[in-house]
Specification:
By secondary structure, the protein is α+β, with helices and mostly antiparallel strands. The chain has two helices and 13 strands; from the N terminus they run βααββββββββββββ. Strands 1-2-3-12-4-5 form a six-stranded antiparallel barrel. A four-stranded antiparallel sheet has the order 8-7-6-9, with no helix packed on it. The longest helix has 24 residues. It starts with a strand and ends in a 5-residue tail after the last strand.
Length: 206
Amino acid sequence: MTALRPVTASGPNVALPTTAQVDAELARERRRRGSGNVLRRTLAILVTVFAVTVLVSQFLTPMFHVYGTSMEPTLEQGDVVMAWVPGDFSTGDLVAFSFNNQLLVKRVIAGPGDWVDISSDGTVSVNGQPLAEDYLPQGEKALGTCDIALPYQVPDGSYFLMGDHRSTSIDSRSKQMGCVPKEQVVGRLVLRLWPLDRLGGVASGS
């Protein structure tokens, strides 16, 4: 299971990279480019990224520190990601949501009123159309833990969510979690801010 911790300016939820992680990032850049000027520029970039991360998380949009492995390789443990809160969410979006007093992350498979079916080999269909899930790791399709009756219709006001590691993820296929009401969804993950070598948009697809 992949979970999230909020990035905040103070308090027990501080989740910015540690000093050791910063040192490792600097060392990696120094080895890669071998220049004192590059080292100074990298340090300036790191300080700027940290400052922007805290300011944005406090005043504009939520940011989270990822831990767990069920969403690899899209999200890896230690990533710092930014969320956005649109009006609705689409198939393929990565969303943060509240469940059992935790913040978790899964992928939107279907929305309110959609019909979901999953074959024995793990192929997912929505409203009779198989999904082209290019975001899944090679060979990761699996029926997994599924104790709901298929095909399954998503309740009004809810989303059917699944993890990318289908063989191990506990998600909407299981009655233990079920579909997630829209009001429990914190936002769509849109940007990875850390580590620097993976800085950029968070992949989604349909």
